[in-house]
């Protein structure tokens, strides 16, 4: 299934502001943590020369606006009005007091969850998908290629492409492609094209299949395929759902809203914030505004990255330069990594099956500004069911890692404190993950 060709006039109209009233609580700017870090994030390196990348090195893959955002140092970057209008379809997302969960746990903690599952796709991923599609369309790109794990990112980019007149082609990690057919159908409903990865459609995919014919795939493999196709198509660009700095930037609408919503709830300080971590975008989006306040104002909010024990880049990986993909087509990124050839088990939280971690998140952890913990899958999904039976929302398998860590913490609390959980998405299309636990 392909999208219909879009004329220049139609594309121009798709980018015009519709004059839709946007809720005032939707942020007007993205927050850039780079402005407040005590030390700059190590630069990305050219894979051939191992010298810091220049804008021209990234131009085959990304539009100029996103390249500028990747290396930006200013604290706030204005959100285009068209992007804010689209955000207004579901933003601000709710911050909810989990009173029933508190009662079940018998904790003195006041637990809040920031719920990104209200987006049209059901996760936090459209926050950057819309922005990336907008800047690509503005530059004249006609097609975006990308990877996806569990499928939330592929569906989000397909959604954004439908709104902004772009063809979207997705390589989904085979383990999730086979286990989550409704995610593929969701992408196709928005006009996206989805292939299992590794595939025989690319040189990278064919090479992987020749060596590992029975592989379940990985995000690193899928990235290699998507990057290869974009690099060889002059009308295409590559779009990444996590890891890179500009993706972290776009997601900060989450944490900015949460700070305001906590104030409105009479909670001027959050003691501990938990977010799930795969490539880092959801975690960064929630925690970076809190971390920025820690750095500027001296607050002491504890920030916790909650990763799967099956893919523990932050807790067991090495902090060094590594490729973002298996084939070595991406720049070298300074990050916590398990090695770009690491293939994690086929866990249910497909969105967290990545060998590395965002350079910005990695830098924050390396500086001691953020903590990390690894959660076993059984513990995560059991916590997801406990949350669902208390609060009514079935969390995405990825989100359950943050839920599990927060529940464990809340059970040990002896004094009142404020706990915030990043609920990155709902699990309506991931219900088979829970089948062993119900």
Automatic annotation (TrEMBL):
User: What are the alphabetically sorted keywords of the record?
Assistant: Amino-acid biosynthesis, Aromatic amino acid biosynthesis, Lyase, Pyridoxal phosphate, Tryptophan biosynthesis
Q: Could you tell me the EC number(s) of this protein?
A: 4.2.1.20
Q: Name a single GO cellular component.
A: cytoplasm
Molecular function (GO) terms listed? L-serine hydro-lyase (adding indole, L-tryptophan-forming) activity; pyridoxal phosphate binding; tryptophan synthase activity
SUPFAM superfamilies (alphabetical): Tryptophan synthase beta subunit-like PLP-dependent enzymes
Reaction(s) catalysed (UniProt annotation): (1S,2R)-1-C-(indol-3-yl)glycerol 3-phosphate + L-serine = D-glyceraldehyde 3-phosphate + L-tryptophan + H2O
Domain annotation Tryptophan synthase beta chain-like PALP: ranges = 90-425
Q: In which pathway does it act?
A: Amino-acid biosynthesis; L-tryptophan biosynthesis; L-tryptophan from chorismate: step 5/5
Q: One Pfam family this chain carries?
A: PALP
Q: Taxonomically, which superkingdom?
A: Bacteria
Q: Which NCBIfam families match?
A: PRK12391.1, trpB_rel
Say which family it is in: Belongs to the TrpB family.
The task this protein performs is described as: The beta subunit is responsible for the synthesis of L-tryptophan from indole and L-serine.
Q: What is the name attached to this protein's record?
A: tryptophan synthase
Instruction: Please report the organism this UniProt entry assigns to the protein.
Output: Rhodococcus jostii (strain RHA1)
Query: What gene is this protein translated from?
Result: trpB2
């Amino acid at each position: 299934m392909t999208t219909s060709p879009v004329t220049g006039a139609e594309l121009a109209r798709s980018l015009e502001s519709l004059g839709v009233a946007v809720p005032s609580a939707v942020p007007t700017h993205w927050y850039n943590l780079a402005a407040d870090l005590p030390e700059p994030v190590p630069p990305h390196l050219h894979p051939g020369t191992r010298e810091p990348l220049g804008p021209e090195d990234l131009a085959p893959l990304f539009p100029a606006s996103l390249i500028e955002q990747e290396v930006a140092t200013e604290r706030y970057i204005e959100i285009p009005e068209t992007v804010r209008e689209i955000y207004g379809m579901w933003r601000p997302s709710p911050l909810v007091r989990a009173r029933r969960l508190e009662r079940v746990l018998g904790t003195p903690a006041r637990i809040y969850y920031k719920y990104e599952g209200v987006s049209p796709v059901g996760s936090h991923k459209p926050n950057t998908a819309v922005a990336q599609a907008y800047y690509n369309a503005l530059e004249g790109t006609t097609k975006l290629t990308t990877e996806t794990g569990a499928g939330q990112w592929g569906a989000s980019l397909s959604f954004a492409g439908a709104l902004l007149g772009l063809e979207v082609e997705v390589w989904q990690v085979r383990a999730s492609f086979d286990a989550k057919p409704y995610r593929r159908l969701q992408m196709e409903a928005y006009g996206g094209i989805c292939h299992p990865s590794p595939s025989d459609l690319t040189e990278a995919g064919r090479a992987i299949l020749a060596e590992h014919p029975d592989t379940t795939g990985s995000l690193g493999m899928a990235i290699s395929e998507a990057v290869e196709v974009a690099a060889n198509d002059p009308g295409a660009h590559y779009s990444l759902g996590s890891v890179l700095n500009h993706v972290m930037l776009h997601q900060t609408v989450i944490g900015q809203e949460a700070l305001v919503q906590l104030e409105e709830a009479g909670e001027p300080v959050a003691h501990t914030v938990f977010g799930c971590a795969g490539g880092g975008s959801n975690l960064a989006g929630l925690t970076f505004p809190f971390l920025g306040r820690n750095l500027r104002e001296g607050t002491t909010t504890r920030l916790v990255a909650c990763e799967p024990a099956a893919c523990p880049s932050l807790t067991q990986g090495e902090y060094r330069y590594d490729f973002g993909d298996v084939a070595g087509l991406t720049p070298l990124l300074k990050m916590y990594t398990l090695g770009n050839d690491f293939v994690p088990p086929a866990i249910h939280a497909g969105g967290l099956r990545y060998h590395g971690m965002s350079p910005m998140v990695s830098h924050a952890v390396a500086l001691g500004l953020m903590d990390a913990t690894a959660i076993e899958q059984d513990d995560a999904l059991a916590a997801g069911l406990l949350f669902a039976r208390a609060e009514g929302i079935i969390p995405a398998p990825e989100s359950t890692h943050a839920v599990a860590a927060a529940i464990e913490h809340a059970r040990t609390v002896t004094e009142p404190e404020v706990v915030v959980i990043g609920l990155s998405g709902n699990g309506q299309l991931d219900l088979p993950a829970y089948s062993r636990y119900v």
